[in-house]
Amino acid sequence: MSKPIPFPPIIELDQEASILLDLLVDLGHLDELALEQVNQVLAGIEKPLNEHGMASINVNDVRRIAAMTLFDRAPTLEGEARRMIEREWGLIFY
Fold first, then answer.
1. 15-38, pLDDT tens digit by residue?
2. Is 30 among the domain residues?
3. Max Cα distance, the chain (Å)
4. Per the domain annotation, does 4 fall within a domain?
5. pTM of the predicted structure, to 2 decimals
6. Is position 15 within any domain?
7. What is the three-class DSSP state of 12?
8. How many domains does the chain contain in total?
């Protein structure tokens, strides 16, 4: 008999995805509100479930969602915060 799949599925970040998310927070690119937005979108991603009912989020998922979040916020950033995003964008997202 198969194990029941939990609802909602458990979302798990792979190691690279976790490192990228931590890096974005540590560098100050994602504040608490932006991190919450990223987490909400990541939780809604449709991914195949493994035998334990868990969906694995990879670094490309995090990169895409974080880029969308930062891009949406960019017009409201001023001064050094905006320059930092402009300088580091290519390093982080390419």
1. 999 999 999 999 888 989 999 999
2. yes
3. 59
4. no
5. 0.76
6. yes
7. strand
8. 1
